[in-house]
């Protein structure tokens, strides 16, 4: 690309719409090929513990970027001019672990002790699976991916602890094997599945009653395949009840300028 | 290693014992780290078809080496001074698809139209799995791996056709996922599993009644994991009934000087 032209990449184009308040949809399918991120913003007295929680639990909490110092709302490693106070289409405000508000910008809430954490998201590996010809049921059925609380305990970091939340995509065995191969290449977006087969073995009582998201069809010749899910750190935050935290609204992600293919380790 | 000394590697040491008739055991566990191979010897009117069968079905038939020309009994790419007429501890002689004899050398049967094919074997990936801390049930239970005929049709090559035979190792889901990652690195020794979970989906009626090898324990929290098996080309040969063919006796493999770790593609 010739840098002297006015061309902008699709990720940047959509972020501009979001910043101007001209984009109010979820970001699934927007800017294909670009990495989208989960967001968690915490005050600095929680930041070290949250960073440690991510380091100890990289599968549910794959950290891709964070504020360089408290109060820094720019994320230059993720993309040009990203300002985390404006560039996510919908935010959730949590006080003492309770959801109190959804809004489209957080500049009036931002303070000099805030730290933004951006985590990898399943959209990236779903794109890689689709590109390989695999079917993803929640996409076929146009609903949210089903997510479940499990009995798989995350490593504790100070006041932050949680049982892992997993997302589930049903697949035939041969496709599950292929999905494991593909997702292994993408550790920064949850990596390989953490379980497949019998849901009861990870503490899921009824596969047809997800704790988050929607139920999807599981056929007789399919196995449920489970991935570590970015809802896990949200559960840890809800449980720990910090005075103030801010997340993206589910499905309304930060669109970065990183390419999904650049996340592949192989 | 200093080539001027008389040092020999462990693989070569055991081959010398085999050639002198001083080794009559199976080769499982012998010369750790070195690639062991399945053997099939066919007369030249079958060789092109067998080579094509291997190329079309690389998971059950991962070809590692073959005679450079008909009648050539040396395999220099596999190791120093390997003579396929003497260096396998036990051979099976087949006439018109029927097993007629087992013997310890085949020099009197060798003719100028014979072609030897050496195929990768599960010992190599089992070693990689063990090195990663995984348990392999047939090793723990000191028996042969259970093997099953399936309904997975191999691609046909001339007169050679077969349904795939698979070997099975039970594992917890998290270990099955790890095994898929590890075996993916070793395509020349059967590669990633071809199925896991419900045996009926690949035409196995009773997992506790293997068609070859021994039954192993499958625990309630485990999945059966299935790999393409080197018995498959033997089935194709038996079925096609060539006038004469020679194989290794199960478990009595050719020990090469190649290192298992050198087979890893990553």
What is the structure about, briefly put?
Chain A is built from 6 helices and 11 strands. With 266 residues, the first copy, chain A, is α+β, with helices and mostly antiparallel strands.
Protein architecture, described:
Two copies of one chain form a homodimer. The first copy, chain A, has 266 residues and is an alpha+beta fold. Chain A folds into two domains: 3-18 and 29-121 and 241-261, 3-Layer(aba) Sandwich (PSTPO5379-like); 123-232, PSTPO5379-like domain (PSTPO5379-like fold, 2-Layer Sandwich). Chain A contains six helices and eleven strands. In chain A, strands 1, 2, 3, 4, 5, 10 and 11 form a seven-stranded antiparallel beta sheet that branches. Chain A is globular and about 50 Å long. The mean pLDDT of chain A is 96.
CATH superfamily of the largest domain in chain A: PSTPO5379-like
Number of strands of chain A: 11
Q: What is the alpha-carbon Rg of chain A in Å?
A: 18 Å
Topology-level CATH name of the largest domain in chain A = PSTPO5379-like
The H/E string of chain A reads HEHEEEEHHEEHEEHEE
Average pLDDT of chain A works out at 96
Which structural class should the secondary elements of chain A be placed in? Answer: alpha+beta
User: Greatest contact pair?
Assistant: A-B, 19 and 19 residues
Query: Looking at the structure, what is the overall shape of chain A?
Result: globular
Known CATH architecture of the largest domain in chain A: 3-Layer(aba) Sandwich
The largest sheet of chain A is:
7 strands, antiparallel
Percentage of helical residues of chain A?
10-25%
CATH class descriptor of the largest domain in chain A: Alpha Beta
């Amino acid at each position: 690309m010739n840098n002297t032209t006015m061309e902008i990449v699709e990720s940047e184009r959509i972020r501009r719409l979001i910043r101007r308040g001209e984009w109010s949809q979820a970001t699934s399918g927007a800017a294909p090929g670009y990495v989208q991120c989960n967001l968690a913003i915490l005050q600095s007295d929680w930041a070290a513990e949250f960073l440690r929680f991510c380091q100890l639990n990289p599968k549910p909490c794959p950290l891709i970027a964070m504020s360089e110092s408290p109060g820094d709302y720019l994320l230059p490693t993720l993309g040009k001019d990203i300002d985390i106070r404006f560039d996510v289409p919908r935010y959730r405000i949590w006080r003492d672990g309770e959801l109190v508000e959804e809004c489209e910008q957080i500049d009036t809430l931002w303070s000099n002790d805030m730290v933004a954490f951006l985590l990898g998201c399943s959209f990236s590996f779903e794109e890689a699976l689709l590109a390989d010809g695999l079917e993803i049921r929640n996409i076929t059925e146009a609903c949210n991916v089903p997510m479940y609380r499990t009995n798989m305990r995350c490593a504790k970091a100070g006041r932050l602890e949680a049982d892992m939340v997993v997302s589930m995509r049903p697949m035939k065995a041969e496709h599950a094997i292929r999905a494991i191969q593909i997702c292994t290449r993408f550790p920064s977006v949850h990596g390989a599945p953490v379980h497949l087969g019998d849901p009861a073995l990870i503490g899921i009582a009824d596969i047809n009653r997800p704790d988050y998201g929607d139920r999807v069809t599981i056929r007789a010749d399919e196995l449920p395949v489970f991935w570590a899910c970015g809802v896990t750190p949200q559960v840890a935050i809800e449980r720990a009840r910090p005075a103030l935290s801010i997340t993206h609204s589910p499905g309304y992600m930060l669109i970065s300028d990183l390419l999904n293919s650049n996340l592949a380790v192989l």
